[in-house]
From TrEMBL:
The keyword Transferase does not apply. Residues 1-22 are annotated as: Disordered. It comes from Galbula dea. It holds the Pfam family zf-H2C2_2. This is ZN300 protein. InterPro entries: Znf_C2H2_sf, Znf_C2H2_type. SUPFAM superfamilies: beta-beta-alpha zinc fingers. The gene is Znf300_1. PANTHER family: KRUEPPEL-LIKE TRANSCRIPTION FACTOR, KRUPPEL-LIKE FACTOR 15. Residues 1-19, 20-47, 48-75 form the C2H2-type domain. GO terms for molecular function: DNA-binding transcription factor activity, RNA polymerase II-specific; RNA polymerase II cis-regulatory region sequence-specific DNA binding; zinc ion binding. Gene3D superfamilies: Classic Zinc Finger (3.30.160.60).
Length: 81
């Protein structure tokens, strides 16, 4: 690992340690970023918006996937056909 913090984060996958806990429901997470995304389910915060149709998302990655419905992009292909 290039950074000590990345090693510590990785080691949690082996130990099962989940130090970040949601104050609303008690669900626990290995990374603070996971907790922050989860907390949006309680606040209904949707900071990412599609510029084509206005649909909103909790995560930027979900917006990027959605945008493919407008562009027709299909980045994954079956190797059989």
């Amino acid at each position: 690992f290039t950074q000590k913090s990345n090693l510590f984060r990785h080691q949690r996958s082996h130990s099962g340690e989940k130090p970040y806990q949601c104050s609303q429901c008690g669900k626990r997470f290995t990374q603070n970023s996971g907790l922050l995304i989860h907390e949006r389910t309680h606040t209904r915060e949707t900071p990412y918006q599609c510029s084509q149709c206005g649909k909103r998302f909790i995560q930027n990655s979900k917006l990027l996937i959605h945008e493919r419905t407008h562009t027709g992009e299909k980045p994954y292909q079956c190797s059989q056909c």
